[in-house]
Q: What sequence folds into this?
């Protein structure tokens, strides 16, 4: 599975959009991009995933560049409860293991 | 949505004893389950992959005789930490992959973790 690179930390003002980048320059054609987040002392929570088209759900939007080498997770109106570590993962088959990098610690400030 | 239940959420045991952690997929069949370990301020580290009805595949450096994994059914996997020592104290998290939506690219669903403290 391809490796990902994320900034270690980001701050965001409450109510503003949080844009979290992820680089995955070695992604292969059949690998999806997944985003999870982990709030302190809990298991990770699935947020969104996509292959090449932009995706949106009730939690967030995922923007994948045309060359698929990077993506951005967008939380449109960040709240204090969105403070967490966000992980970007690329993975192929359903049964394939997911390797977690260090993620981005997002701190939403009032 | 898909729910993974992990039990217990917190356990304290004495050095030398064994501890069993259960991971259940409540509303889907988990053909594959993964076990992770997480130390404070670190990321999740994959320990092993278990497939229903077959032996688990362990990551390099993880002792298979110490961390026994059983995946006897499509909804239950267990991790047993045998002869626990203080250095085994950690946050253990399971996740399950299934075909909730019938898609091969279904996301992982995680349990809420087990905080193990070995005294």
A:
């Amino acid at each position: 599975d391809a490796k990902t690179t994320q900034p270690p930390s980001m701050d965001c003002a409450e109510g503003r959009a949080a844009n979290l980048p992820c680089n995955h320059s070695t992604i292969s054609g059949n690998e999806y991009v997944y985003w999870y987040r982990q709030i302190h002392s809990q298991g990770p929570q699935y947020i969104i995933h996509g292959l090449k088209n932009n995706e949106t759900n009730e939690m967030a939007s995922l923007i994948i560049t045309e060359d698929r080498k990077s993506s951005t997770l967008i939380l449109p109106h960040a709240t204090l409860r969105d403070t967490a570590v966000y992980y970007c993962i690329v993975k192929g088959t359903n049964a394939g293991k997911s390797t977690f990098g260090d993620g981005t610690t997002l701190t939403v400030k009032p | 949505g898909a729910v993974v239940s992990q039990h217990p959420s917190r356990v304290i045991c004495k050095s030398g004893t064994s501890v069993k952690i259960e991971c259940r997929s409540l509303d889907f069949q988990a053909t594959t389950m993964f076990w992770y370990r997480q130390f404070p301020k670190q990321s999740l580290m994959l320990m092993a992959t278990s497939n229903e009805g077959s032996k688990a595949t362990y990551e390099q450096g993880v002792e298979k005789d110490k961390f026994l994994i059983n995946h006897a059914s499509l909804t239950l996997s267990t991790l047993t930490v045998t002869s626990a020592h203080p250095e085994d104290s950690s946050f253990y998290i399971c996740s399950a992959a299934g075909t909730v939506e019938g898609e091969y690219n279904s996301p992982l669903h995680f349990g809420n973790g087990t905080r193990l403290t070995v005294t």
Summary: The mean pLDDT of chain B is 90. Chain B has no helices and eleven strands. The interface with chain A takes residues 4, 6, 31-32, 34, 36, 43-46, 49, 51, 91, 93, 95, 97, 99, 103-113, 115 of chain B (CB under 8 Å).
